[in-house]
Specification:
The longest helix is centred in the C-terminal third of the chain and has 14 residues. The two termini are about 25 Å apart. The relative contact order is 0.19. Helix 5 runs parallel beside helix 6. This protein is about 35% helix and about 15% strand. With about 170 residues, it is α/β, with parallel strands linked by helices.
Length: about 170
């Protein structure tokens, strides 16, 4: 599959024909519409949830009619609830452990807005569980992109990296 330089999509994705030509089943853990319901919600986990952009993503996911926020992870936000971010009641608490939250919540997609020092580990944690990723973290090198490409191929799972997240946020909301 051919992939554009910016933003970068790796793995079996079908975003825009300029990004990748490989078809992919709809989100929803690969279930058919009969199994998951024709109007099923996309279950999203936000990593970096307590940061400025992570908060924005939480608000956007909460406002989207076809998304459900199932997890929020950020070591800086442990002990805080998502209700603080949304300004409305929510039982969801911010976790400090991504792998455990991925296992517990079984999201359809992970949105990562963290820092270069941890983003590759976060992507690997999601991809090894076959959870597609949307990454807005900046500062990745060409080597990092090649590592992500290999992880996607090995796990047969997509990762969309948009360091200019205005593009990624718009795609996620469509």
């Amino acid at each position: 599959a051919w992939v554009a330089r910016e933003p970068r999509a790796f793995g079996p994705v079908a975003m825009d024909s300029r990004l990748c030509y490989t078809p992919v089943p709809p989100l929803g853990r690969g279930h058919s519409s009969e199994e998951s319901g024709a109007n099923s919600m996309i279950r999203a986990l936000v990593s970096g949830a307590f940061g400025r952009m992570g908060r924005y993503v939480i608000e956007a996911v909460d406002a989207a009619k076809d998304f459900e926020l199932v997890g929020a992870v950020d070591p800086a936000g442990v002990g805080h609830g998502v209700a603080e971010i949304l300004g409305e009641p929510s039982d969801l608490q911010i976790s400090g452990h991504l792998a455990g939250t991925l296992e517990d919540t079984k999201p359809d997609v992970m949105v990562d807005f963290t820092v270069p020092a941890v983003v590759l580990d976060n992507i690997e944690a999601a991809l090894t569980r076959r959870v597609p990723c949307v990454v807005g973290t900046t500062g990745l090198s060409d080597t990092d992109f090649e590592v992500v490409r290999a992880m996607c191929e090995r796990n047969e799972t997509a990762c969309f990296i948009a360091p200019n997240f205005s593009i990624g946020a718009n795609l996620m909301m469509r």
